[in-house]
Amino acid sequence: MPINVPKQLPARSILEKENIFIMDTERATTQDIRPLKILILNLMPEKERTETQLLRLLSNSPLQVYVDFIHTKSYQSKNVAESHLKQFYKTFEDVRSQRYDGMIITGAPIEHLAFEKVDYWQEITAIMEWAKDNVTSSLHICWGAQAALYYHYGINKDSRSHKLSGIFNHQLVEPTCKLVRGINDEFLAPHSRNTDIQISDIMKHPDLVPLDQSEKAGPFLIVSKDERHIMITGHIEYDATTLAEEYKRDLNKGLDIHMPTGYFPDNNPDNLPLNRWRSQAYLIFSNWLNYYVYQETPYTWD
Question: What is the pTM of this model?
Answer without folding.
Answer: 0.88
